[in-house]
Amino acid sequence: MNTNSNTYTIVYASVMVVIVAFLLAFVSSSLKDKQNENVELDKKKQILSALNVDIKGADVAQLYSEIVKQEPLLSADGSIKAEEGAFAIDSKVENAKPLAERNLPLFICQVEGATKYVLPVYGAGLWGPIWGYVALNDDKSTIFGVYFSHAGETPGLGAEITSVPFKSQFPGKQIAKEGEFTSVAIVKPGNAEEGRDYVNGISGGTITSQGVDAMLNDGLGQYVNFLKQ
User: Is the separation of the CB atoms in 142 and 173 below 8 Å?
Assistant: First the structure.
């Protein structure tokens, strides 16, 4: 075959595309189990972080199995739909459903002999999704700890929702007043919110702060019947 011809070029390019596609598919398939394992491990780290558990240098999978005792699914009315399955739930998918049809994951944990309830929350920031976990004490009102993350918020601004100074404001805050759900407000630094516990938002990250406020209100609000039990 004439290596300078158009036919040769097309055939050569086609063969290379097929070979590369095959190799990529093979590598992706070979690593799929490991990728899934890493995703699950990262989720466990996030839940443990909301519980203020030090995971540095720890066997996360073992630590998670020791602390997280139950993973039921709830209905919006607060009843248990299934005794297990919470870990496999995708909050993004569930949030797209009507509230009455959602599977609400709950993680019941034991930290130093005390019961904690971890609730996942999911919302929208400035540039993409934001999500997190809120750990409550056994009164189902007092925040024990939180974890937040994001897909693409601006470094130094909205991305600061992942920082220790922001997250450290939440422990001890109440998400209910006189038996009624209030969530926790995110306010501009120096401002206050009457009738609700609040924390300072991110300076220069107003839209992301508002996103966290809405995420907490909507995400925790869907558990209101469980929280009142």
Answer: yes
Residue 1 has pLDDT above 70, yes or no: no
Structure token digits, residue 84: 């297990």
Separation of alpha carbons 192 and 215, rounded Å: 19
| Helical H segments across the chain, by residue range | 6-50, 60-67, 91-95, 164-167, 206-221, 224-228
Angstrom distance (rounded) from CA 109 to CA 106 = 10
Instruction: Give the separation between CA 189 and CA 195, rounded to whole angstroms.
Output: 17
Task: Scan for tokens 């991305």, then name that residue.
Answer: 159
pTM: 0.85
Residues in CB range of 78: below 8 A, 6 or more apart: 223, 225, 226, 227, 228, 229
**Could you report how far apart the first and last alpha carbons of the chain are, in Å?**
79
**85-121 pLDDT tens trace:** 999 999 999 999 999 999 999 999 999 999 999 999 9
Closest CA to 145 of 177, 108, 124, 119: 119
Distance of alpha carbon 73 from alpha carbon 134, whole angstroms: 16
What are the extents of the domains in the chain? 68-228
Residue partners of 164: CB distance under 8 A and separation at least 6:
none
